[in-house]
Amino acid sequence: xxxxxxxxxxxxxxxxxxxxNPTKKPPHIVFxxxxxxxxxxxxxxxxxxxxxxxxxxxxxxxxxxxxxxQPICTPTRAALMTxxxxxxxxxxxxxxxxxxxxxxxxxFKILPQKLKDVGYLTHLVGKWHLGYSKWDYTPTKxxxxxxxxxxxxxxxxxxxxxxxxxxxxxxxxxxDLRDNxxxxxxxxxxxxxxxxxxxxxxxxxxxxxxxxFLYFCIDQPAKGFQVPxxxxxxxxxxxxxxxxxxxxxxxxxxxxxxxxxxxxxTHGLWEDTIIFFVGDNGGLxxxxxxxxxxxxxxxxxxxGATRVPAMIHGSRLKKKGYVNDGLNHxxxxxxxxxxxxxxxxxxxxxxxxxxxxxxxxxPSPRDEMIYNIDNFQQSPGAAIRxxxxxxxxxxxxxxxxxxxxxxxxGWFPVDKKIVIPKGVTGMEIPTxxxxxxxxxxxxxxxxxxxxxxxxxxxxxxxxxKILKGYEKEAVPPVDxxxxxxxxxxNFDGVLLTMVIDVNIQS
Length: 506
Hints:
Blueprint (H helix, E strand, L loop, with lengths): L1 H13 L1 H4 L8 E7 L17 H9 L1 E3 L2 E2 L4 H10 L3 H4 L21 H6 L4 E7 L18 E5 L27 E2 L2 E2 L7 H15 L6 E6 L11 H5 L7 H26 L6 E7 L23 H4 E2 L1 E5 L7 E3 L3 E2 H12 L13 H6 L7 E7 L6 E6 L2 E6 L10 H4 L28 E5 L15 H15 L27 H7 L1
């Protein structure tokens, strides 16, 4: 494959960086980001879920019990790639939808670019979702030697079907499966199997004298209930059809991780590899995602959207087989990966190096974090945690008016069926309440059931003052206007970048 040849040539240039100090050779890094994985959608949190491979890795590694991400997909991925809170990169508002002009701003040097500087071969398999209105936003222009996956946020697992963005008019069906910049031919394969096969191929062809960065953004459990019958059958004891299919998708996710670990062992990379596994945001209850015992769903500022399953496995861990309760945020993972690779992070990065916390149980360097700051005119909302205290001000719903808070706030059992009204349907959408304040003590009340702002007004003001300091540093959101000239109907059903950019590439 052309991309592999190019990658080896790039790494050859950087070999001198390692020859001078072989004892500092960086590890291979496999970073697995699951899509819409709820807190209770993993075996180590829920014995009813069948994830034996991940459970074994967690038992032999470190389970991170207080890992936080952004409330929704694009902002989490931006924070991981940059090490900055999304309000600093312009990606604090919602996700990047089909046809939108914006993307992760190009002046940011992102994680794969920094890793390539010290000789890593870098590959992305799966979901990107950080911009596709022009080629410069796409993975192979942002530091990845190869890309195999979908550029947008939603993909039908059956690759004979098109992706659809339900928040855009006209209906945005479009085929979105790429091999670098080319389009993968339609077939009857299940997308996760294709992604896993490519990840295994990358590992099998990797020149192991050079460090590997494999960013595996698996498209599970995510949206929809498409699942091969044999995986649904693994959970035939579950009466509810949607829950049964959803658990089947979790089984597919676990099998994919198993195939990757087997490949690492088979090809001699296992002992030098650190595996990171984390969800990109909480589960979607309409898809049977399970965030219990935490409150609410993805795309809100509550714990159910932001506190996710996470674990790390690797021979470089000094202490293994334990649960780490240190507070950490997705920006920290950016900084920690750079530290492991021997790269100095940006001096103003929001991320902390948490490797000592992970490897030997040292205290977390983090005591404060921002959930989000979004000054969206229709429904501004922000949240901060300092120590055990959490403050939410404004609307906790990041997808208003596409999602209405009244429909998604609560503690939902796994078989709960809810229908979220969508603003694009023309329905009358309730106006979000103004000047809402929530205060929680997460040590005493991790489920956010006891709102304390009236009892502790001085604590509200203390946290509000800190939050306002961060708000002064917020940048405007990236361009979220639509270019409907990129409608897939103009390109034989294929989702492309903007018409002007497509013409440049033709």
